[in-house]
Amino acid sequence: MPEQPEKWPRGQAWTLTHAHDAGQVAGIRCSRCSVTRYYKPAELREVIGNVTIDDVREKVRCQQCKSREWMSAQLFHPTGEQAHTIRYRRLVQIRWEKRVIWRDE
After folding, report:
1. What is the pTM of this model?
2. pLDDT tens digits along 41-95
3. How many Cβ atoms are within 10 Å of 75's Cβ, its own excluded?
4. Where are the domains of the chain?
């Protein structure tokens, strides 16, 4: 269970908004390609909506193998070393055709 801030509303699902407020990072991994990408929850919320991390896993697709079935997603607090070495995929723009453009940072 993710660490919960004091103002976490009891009885509600842990959504991307809660994760952003708690300073968590979303790690999405394709087990088939062995690729892990890291996202800011606030930017994922703009694309997918304010959903739980389980719903994120169901909605994402691997960019390399185009598969959905091998995807896993988790929210976590980066450690001191991770906070400096993680390369985030940042949201650049959302085009009208509903294409999402990311860049690695």
Report:
1. 0.76
2. 999 999 998 999 889 999 999 989 989 899 999 999 998 888 889 999 998 888 7
3. 21
4. 16-104
